[in-house]
Write the structure tokens for this entry.
Amino acid sequence: MTAPSLTSPASPPDGATASTGRVRVPVTAAGLPARAAALAADGYRLALVAAHDDGATVRVVYLHTAAGDRRVELHLSVDRRDWRVPTLAAVSFTASRFERELRDLYGIQPVGHPLPRPLVRHAHWPEGWFPMRQRAGQPPPFATVDEPPALLAVEGPGVYEIPVGPVHAGLIEPGHFRFSVVGETIVRLSTRLWYTHRGVERQFEGRDLPGGIRLAERISGDTAVGHTLAYCRAVEDALCLSIPVEARRMRAILLELERVYNHIGDIGALCNDAGHGVLHAHALRIRERLLRLNARTTGHRLLRSGVVIGGAAIRQVPTGQELEDIAADIRDVVGLALGNSLVLDRLAGTAVLTGVQASDLGTLGYVARASGIATDARRDHPTGVLTPAEGVGDVLSVPTQATGDVLARFQQRAAEIDASIALLGVLVPAAAAGVVRDWPTVSHRPPGPRGTSGVGLVEGWRGTIVHRVELNDGYTVTRNKIVDPSFCNWPALPVALANTIVPDFPLANKSFNLSYAGNDL
């Protein structure tokens, strides 16, 4: 196929090479900002920034994506004696966060960055130690820090602070929230994450491809299908594997089942935070029913083992009647919630994220769609699942809301459940249990190309997930850069909470339901 260019769909730009639809463009430091700005003006978003310390050379890859499955990578070589790159913060807010991540993990300095403070690193991290460098070695001793994290303080008459976390009750992972408040009104919310930075990307290095699946399934437990599918799509892109339509149908079923069980859990939790515990109990009952259905489908309640390289595996296909019964049960819960004046009043107008704010921050998934932004990788990047021409074009819909408040995020989840059930109604009758794959066994695999790379884009239940892998011999991972949608959506929570009241925080936080694990890689 002919790869799109920065200016013309007919031919790649000078120096570019095409592989399965991606255009690779080598750029200089001086030319990077202009190239990135041109892509942004053409409707591309910066989906990923990946650094690569190859020993002799250092590279930074900037992946830009757009609807129509357009993908452009800008490749910048970095001087090992300098470790500096020009900032793209003026082009993309998300770029500013990727650059802070590069600075913390690689020591690559974004020149001209407006706020070059740490993102991943905490104060107790050893100075001058960058864990993603190839020669990083074992970490030096970490310091003991008793002081609270350094966050921007708000000063003025009547302003006081409320610290929350990082340790929370129950199973929630650690995160620190600091509210600057006047009376009950939130003037500013500052957040500090990465308390459980696990080095997930580093753990991918040196793994064989099946070993990568076991790790991908555990990146964020409630998104086992989404992350595993993104990883497999990246590997398949690198090896130019063609996925049988039966396997793509099975993958789509698993992806929608994951979406439904998570959304109904959130709907129940929002009812609970609005004071309607009975509806929460009913939502948990439905979620448990879905988890048991998941276990019959793949052998695991979180749908692990369903996605494999080159295909998919389903033990038992759900029946259409069972899914319709569950959908009717969910609609009853949603109807009762929206018909309750107390619940409706509590959700409406709370923690508004406007469409402009959502767009400027680069939000994804139901957070973006609840603010009117119709972004969805199932439609924009359908490779590896099912394309509209293969029977889902008339069924796959991307619902959106207009108001951007907690109510909109509640209604968006309900609308996405309806859309998923409709899609499953088309997929399930045509599916059969079994294992379908286009991938040889380990003992009979053909020699793979050296130094191949691939990208996987998947619309997980929280939003678009991106994996970019590099393979050194076709079958060993040397690098996997991961972007969970929570990385892009966390900055939107403080914006939505500005000028709300402190009691709105639990409700607003649950309406976003961002992943600590997906963020704190």
Remarks:
- Residues 245-273 form the longest helix (29 residues).
- The chain has a mean pLDDT of 89.
- DSSP finds 17 helices and 16 strands in the chain.
